[in-house]
Amino acid sequence: MHNNMEYSDTADTTSVAVSGAADTVNSSSDKRAAPCWVSTLGTGVLFALAGLLSGFRTIAKATLPHILLPEQGISFQQTTDRIPTPRLLNWNIDQIYRMVDISSVQGASLLLLYAAMFLLLLLLTAQVFNRAFRPIHFKHAGLRGILEGAIETHYPLQSILLLTTTMLVAWLIWKVVPVHIPPSPAGTIASARMGYAWLIRLTALGVLLWLFWGEHGAADVWMHGRERWSAGKSLALVLRGFLWGVLTYLAAYISMPASLEPLLTKLHALGPFNRILFGDVEHHYLAGAAAVWFTAGCLAALLSRNNLPSRWLAALPLAGMGAGMVAFQWFSPTHLVKRYDLSPNVLAAIAFPYSRDHPSTGIPDGRLAARALAKKIHLTFGSRAAYPKRDVLVFRQYGPPVVVIQHGYTLDGLSADRASMANTKKFLEKKRYLSALGWIAFKHLFDCYAMRMEVSRTLNLTLEDLSYGPFATQCDEVVQTMFYTCAANKENQKLLDKWADPHRFAHPDRFSMRLIGDLYRRFGDKSKELFWYRRAEMPSSFMQHAEAEKPMFNTGSVSGRLMWNGKPLAGVKVGVIPWRMNGIPAWVALALQNNIYQIYSPRPYSRLFGPFQPSPFAFHWVSASDTTDSSGSFHIDHLTEGQYRVLLILPPDYTLHVPFDRQLQVRNAPSPFVVKYSAPSVNLGTAYMNWDNSPVQKEQKKTKSGMLH
Questions:
Q1: Of 115, 306, 369, 579, which one has the fewest beta carbons inside 10 Å?
Q2: Helix (H, G, I), strand (E, B) or coil at 684
Q3: Helix H or strand E segment including 181
Q4: Distance CA 248, CA 296 (A)
Q5: Are the C-beta atoms of 68 and 76 separated by less than 8 Å?
Q6: Element holding 301 (H helix, E strand)
Q7: What is the pLDDT of residues 636-668, one digit of tens each?
Q8: pTM tops 0.90, yes or no
Q9: CA distances from 43 to 23, 122, 133, 548 (A)
């Protein structure tokens, strides 16, 4: 008994490894409370740091397949060379390399790393359980001992054997009890929680730790010659270890998903996995991991004591559990549905499941997605009185104008009236374009703007999508062609400034910088043109030519007047579509030669758009437009050098035959025209259109389409 009392005095006067402060024995509980708080909190913090290290590897291994393409080297999904990259897709290359290095650690190297981390935690836990366990310590306390480096060892062989045995048994527990993560149901986003296998693992580990390192455990009996092993004390150790395992499992169950993969796959419904989504996943997962490990450390420190010096110490593990619950709320279906609209009916609209080989997959699209959007923001389907279908006249160089039908709904059948546009725009801005319904909403609004020939709004919408919820693969080519074909007015130049803004877009290579320079050249802004060419490090010969070159022509204008049955055709939209243009790349020039056939194609585009019924997307080729005044006059300016065709959208009560109407007679039709330095302004004169709308003509007859030019 005397020996036991002597040991107790020695143990209580030993400095605590975590806090480094002396915990002097005193019968008064208020004097012991502060060191206990420091010891318990310090143990929890060190465990939390270990949890963060483990969580970093989990994050790297889980997220990299959603950031990189499945090929050699570093190649990012949804990014294209030679064009500006949205900031949300401009990944930190150093961070990605670190993640690749961390996730690539496998086999023996990974085993050694985990063994080293477990050994450090085991040494910490052993000293928390048994303060007399100090196999290596400095002979002199304080700074003197550290500077002199004089150390001494106690029980080195026993310590090594016990530590090795503990690690080996823990490894066997992990191997014998495999963890099976059930797949997440296809129509939900709920990630599986920690299964019962983790409960078995943690309780077995807890029993192991307490039997080996708890007071009166194997370490005490072997190294210090304490009281012999007894069934009662062994049962008490088993119960403490079991309680630690159960409480730690509970903390993990309420704080962390069992796997990130199901959620990451479903997050592609919002578009490409971008930096905002990565930050949300990383921060909340690491917060949950740190909370679980902090709770485990605090519980180990508390359950290792015979008598709690303060009942308020239980607040530490409870605080860890509370923090874990808060972090897990981001992973909950309720939160994700509310924030990102990842409801089962929206996920059911994913036609093609996500594939790394095809990064644009995994997005809700089509009629099912349109119905989900309509239900959420109160849209309607089909043509409505607010915006019924209309006939469009496309004027050619020879022959009568081609008549096509522009329906009053967008590609997915949603009504294109102004109320639907306002609701959709409000929805996208509220969600900052990060929604599983973002793509279908963007398409709807894009079609509404395009079919009204509102060029600047269409272009601005595309840039907003690329800035906040980038569908880069789908929008990159569109935004390029529109900047090459739109009118060079001040409004569109402000949009070009937005594309050049480094806070919104990165310009990672000289080709993307030259692209911006080429576009400023097209807009006639010589100073910005040369600035971007210098950034692109263009050759001196190129720069000399660019400096001496005359600014590209961009002040072309066209005007005219429209008469219908002897009266001014007022309030109709007139647009011009380029046919040939100067200062554009070859691939855009080739596309321009065929764009008109998207307007009056004799082939059906879809089941909603038949022959000579162009999809709204086809009208994004319009360079500029104007609405005729009360006299039927229109004026369109800031056109760049090129050849253009004229088209106009008739009022909804004008229903002509498609594709040609024999009852429509046109005199002095607005034929294709050219604007350039030698012909900066074109007046098409007055076009006289006469149409016989007698009741006999309501019964439409089939006519031959003929050859379209």
A1: 306
A2: strand
A3: none
A4: 5
A5: yes
A6: helix 275-303
A7: 999 999 999 999 999 999 999 999 999 999 999
A8: no
A9: 15, 11, 16, 71
